[in-house]
Structure formats: structure tokens, C-alpha cells
Amino acid sequence: MSLSHKIDFAVIFAVKNANPNGDPLNGNRPRLTFDNLGEVSDVALKRKLRDRLLEGGHAIFVQSNDRNNDGATSLKDRSDKTLGSKLTSEELAQKACAQWLDVRAFGQLFAWKGTKGAGDGVSVAIRGPVTFQSAFSIAPVDISSIQITKSVNTEGDSEKKGSDTMGMKHRVDHGIYLFYGSMNPQLAQRTHFSDEDAQLIKQTLPRLFENDESTARPAGSMEVRKVLWWQHNCAAGQYSSAKVHRSLSVQHDGSYTLTNLPGLTPEELDGY
């Protein structure tokens, strides 16, 4: 059975001396808006959620190379090995949604090239019911940059000193970030995204940054402070997502207030 009630949610998280989402077009500096607000893209947030779900033993289609658990060398390879290569578009969509949690949640574009001249390519677009917005800091953030060097012998005579290699590291000193998301029962009917799937995401959001450590994001530098979960009493929803999201006001220190929406009170979950 597919999702029975509309759901909205919000996640408040803190960043301290970390690069939450580097911008490859700007020397991997933390992403910023023109107003100097920190930003984390929705794609980066969904990547972290996928990783946590994969660690929990759930089937995930879009896996990162360093967390690959099935030996597939590409998305097409994973699709062919799991579903088979001789499928109609409808069969591919149905089997993909049944197999992979992230496909029935976020949707997926399957666009495979066919054999030249054979006309056996496929392009299947699956629209998912779960949407994430990008995260933005509540206030402008300060970015610190440091120059780093290393002097090692990477090859050749060990008696000779290697040339210094220089680079830069960037970090957000401190920031409180917020992002919103929604789950749409009408779209869930197409992918068979269920109430049980929604509960999995709900349980995973407080642990979004668990096992996500790196040199850019040291352990403890990224922390989910609070997850707010609004479950409406019907599939259409008692209020628009915009009105629900607007009912939350977050302060610079991570505290927050809620505007009363009659008949709709969020469940509040602490971070991991």
C-alpha cells in the first residue's frame, strides 16, 4: 500500500569548523549565496541519506563508488545485473521501484544508449514523491581558508627531498542550517512508496551525518540538532507545504518557535 498521508519535514543542523558542501566551481570553497548564507545542495543531502540507508541494509540504486556494495561498475550495469536488459519501459519502471528504495522515493531517470543502428536504447523517467530543498544557514557565515603543504618523497631516491605540494583548505567556522522536505501521496501511488518507507526516512534523518566523516568534515563537526515531522490527516494535506514550512522560525543559536496550525502539530525528534 502506498503512502496514505501527506508529510512535511524540516531538519535543523549545525556546522562547526567544517566544509559541509564544497563548490567545485569555486576551488571547493563552501557554497554561499549572494547574501553570504551557507548552502548545502539537495543533491548532497540526498547522497548522505542514501548512504545511511545503504548502511542499514536497504537496496539503493544510486551508490557512490567508495560505498559500492554489489560490484556494479555503473548504474546501467547495476540495472542490467539486477533487473535484466530486455525490459519494456513499463517493466523497467515497475521493477526498479520495487527493488530500490531511493528510486521509489526520489525517482530516477534511466537513459541508456542502445546498440548503434539497433534502436534498442531506453529512456524512462520516474517521478518520485519525496522532495528535498537545499539547506541554507540561518545567518551569514564566515569562511576561513588555510594554506596546506606536504613534503614527502613520492618516488625516486629516498635521500632526495620531495618538492613541496601546496593547496588550500576551507571551512565554515560556525553555522546553523535548515532544510525542508515533503512527501506526496499522489506521486507515491506511482512508485509504491509506502508508509513503511516514510518511517525509514524519518528514522534515518536524525543520523544524517553518521559515518560521513572526512578531512573536510571531521567527526563531530556536523550535527543534526532537530527533525520536525508534520504528518497531515489526509492524502491531500490540511495545509500547503509552503504554509507548513513557514510555521517554523529558527534562530541563530538553533532554537526555534512554531506558529500554531490547528489540527497539525509536528513530532520533534532529537539528533543522533
Automatic annotation (TrEMBL):
InterPro entries documented for this protein: Cas7_Csh2/Csh2, CRISPR-assoc_prot_Cas7/Csd2
Pfam family, one: Cas_Cas7
Organism superkingdom: Bacteria
A biological process term (GO) from this entry: maintenance of CRISPR repeat elements
Name assigned to this protein: CRISPR-associated protein, Csd2 family
Origin species: Magnetococcus marinus (strain ATCC BAA-1437 / JCM 17883 / MC-1)
